[in-house]
Amino acid sequence: MNINASLFVQLVVFLLGAWITMKYIWPPLIRAIENRQKKIAEGLRAADLGQSALVEASQKQQAIETEARAQAMTIVADGEKRGQSIVEQAKQQAEVEANRIVQTAKDEAAQEMQRAKEALRDQVAQLAIAGAEQILKREVNADIHKDMLDQLKAKL
Question: Where, if anywhere, are coiled coils annotated (predicted)?
């Protein structure tokens, strides 16, 4: 066998194999590689979108937390103000009640003093009558001398 013919046959077989590979094997491999590249690119884009969504969600979460803290502080401050207001109202009501009780006690004391004065006047009038009886050695009629005894009470 001739080496040139062998080389020529090998060249034809090689070119035929290369042509069959380029025509029937290579295009599906290229399509599979391109599809895989597209899927990888889409996956990377989705990962980037997910990362940006995560960052955005984190920022929103921080904003919501900040707002919730501010609202909580406002609620606490309002509660403290309301508590102070209630305490102040209770103090005012207690002061009004204390003043009313003191005034009632003063009024009762004044009435009791007035009754005591009246009782004392009556006792002084009786003592005066008893003293006058002793002095005059006769009975003085209280009904007859009522005007004079009322004047004496008024002076006392």
Answer: 99-130
For residue 143, what are the domain limits? Answer: 3-155
The average pLDDT across 4-11 equals 91
Token pair belonging to 97: 């009640």
Separation between Cα atoms, residue 121 and residue 128, nearest integer Å = 10
- C-alpha neighbours within 13 Å on the C-beta side of residue 53: 6
Global pTM? 0.43
pLDDT tens-place string over residues 48-58: 999 999 999 99
Q: What are the φ/ψ torsions at residue 93 (nearest 5 degrees)? A: -65, -40
Phi-psi region of 35 (alpha: psi -120 to 50; beta: other; left: phi over 0): alpha
| SS3 label, residue 83 | helix
Q: Which two tokens stand for residue 88?
A: 């102040």
